[in-house]
Structures are given as structure tokens and as C-alpha cells.
Amino acid sequence: MTSDEGSNKLFLLAIRGTLASPTLEASRLLHNGTAGVPASVAAAQSLGDLSHMVHVPVGGPTSSKSEFLILDLWNSIEGLNKFFANPKVQEEGGRIFSARDPGVWVPAEGFSSYHLPAPFGRNERVVAIARGDVGNTEKARALHNRTVVSQINKARKGGSMVHEAFVKLTPPGSPQSSEFLFLDVWMNAEGMNKHYQDPEFLQDFQRLFASPPTTSAWVHPPGDWVEW
Length: 228
Description:
With about 230 residues, the protein is α+β, with helices and mostly antiparallel strands. Helix content is about 35%, strand content about 30%.
């Protein structure tokens, strides 16, 4: 990977998988006793890990075969690679997940995004993700940006806080990927569902992808999980 020293570029590490432990509580204790111990947190942060958040599916199971999602934001791809090259880190990840699909994503250049504050007391948080191939990036960018601009007021009334577009990171010298990840954060699950079912939104959303995307919605798991 090339160096981004001197820039404010962020890298999203998304790890989606199936928990290895028989219960969510056992997974919580394992996570906090491995990735969440102070030495491991300090090591990750020293290499550029700015944020570490954990999620489970909305309304999903909380026992055997639970899905799990980790979202980390890094500001150093070299630091990220160095951290995960550590055999101990890989071994600990293998203990948390029985199967996992890690990916590194970068902000999609020219794609509109926004970050809006939450009013006091609105503490519900739902993360919605759509991942798929957009085909022609230029056409997808134009459609995406028109949709964001035309829908932002309606989305905000429904509880939208964040919208970001990411593209899959590819090795230096390789063509840019056409696989994208769109990430939204909402403070109202009911408003989120209503917005995503709106015919006007659905029409543009379906046109954005070359083939049907993978969509999912996530919340913070119960209990005290080490995050930063």
C-alpha cells in the first residue's frame, strides 16, 4: 500500500463474520479480554486506529451463530497492515470469529457525504450498510450525489445523522474497484425503515448498483464492550 503520510485520509476496516463463542456474553468477555485489553488498545491506537466499534444485527440472534460486525477507522494504512501482520492479533481474531470477511475501504472521491449532530437525548443508533458493485463509477457518482442532495431533508426528518460512501481499497497499480460500501447512521430505526421503503428513494437506490447489493442494519450489542 502507498503511504498517505501528511494527509487526513481515513481507512475503514470492516470485519463481518460469525461469532465462535456459544453465547454473546462469552463473545463479549473474549473480545474484552483480547482486543479490549489496555495493551492491545494502546498498540492499535499507536499505529493509527482512531475508532473501534462493535455491532450485532438489528433484531438478530444473541446466541449461537450470531453475526458480528467490527468497524474501525484508521489514519495509517501502514499501521493497519503492521498491526494485523502480528500473529497474536490474527490468533485472537480467529478466537472471536468462526468465519470472517475483512475488508479495507477508503472514502469514495467525489461522492457526497454528510455528518449531522444528534439533538440532546436522541441516543438510539442504527448503522445501515449497503455493499455492492456499482459498475460505472462516474454514472454511479452522478446518480448518488443527485439522490443525496434531493433526499437529505427527508432523511433528516426520519432521523438520519451520517451518510458516507466508501470504495474497496485496491493494491497500488491496480484499477480502482467498482465495489462500494455505503454507510448510514440513524437515530431512529422506525424513521430509517420508512425512508428506505420510500418509492422515490428505492428507485434511485436500485439504479445505483449493477447487481443487487448486500444490505444490513446493525446496533450496539448489549453489555459493556470495550470501544474507543
